Amino acid sequence: MIGRLNHVAIAVPDLAAAAARYRETLGARVSAPREEPDHGVTVVFVELANSKVELLQPLGESSPVAAFLARNPGGGIHHLCFEVADIGAARDRLVAAGARVLGGGTPRPGAHGRPVLFLHPRDFMGTLIELEEA
Ligand code: CO
Questions:
Q1: At residue 33, does pLDDT exceed 90?
Q2: Residue 118 CA to ligand 1 centre (angstroms)
Q3: Is 61 known to be catalytic?
Q4: How many angstroms does the Cα of residue 96 sit away from the middle of ligand 1?
Q5: Which of 32, 60, 117, 118 has the most crowded Cβ, counting Cβ within 10 A?
Q6: CATH classification of 5-133, choosing from 3.60.150.10, 3.10.180.10, 3.40.50.620, 3.40.50.2000?
């Protein structure tokens, strides 16, 4: 069901410093920061030949990334995003299998404007999973 790895998201306490580390130390192509108020994050995209890394910094009071950073003050891998062809069909299959789909199971527009869903980390070996309709 899942296809390509769309991105790995890393929560960071200092987005400018993290972007500079990827740009200057790792020599990566790094986008300008973009605010995503609906998701409570400011994002920088690191473009790789075969995938992306997204650096996430909390935006606003109720950012889900703020709680993550409280537990991991230096930053850390926040989620993996896999592509699916049909997000509604993917959701139905996951629910039927007993997996917990967050946010009531209604897809929302993600960072790339495509519908996304998040799956509970406890059902996936401690990793928050994002599905994005490709
Ligand atoms: Co993501």
A1: yes
A2: 9
A3: no
A4: 24
A5: 117
A6: 3.10.180.10
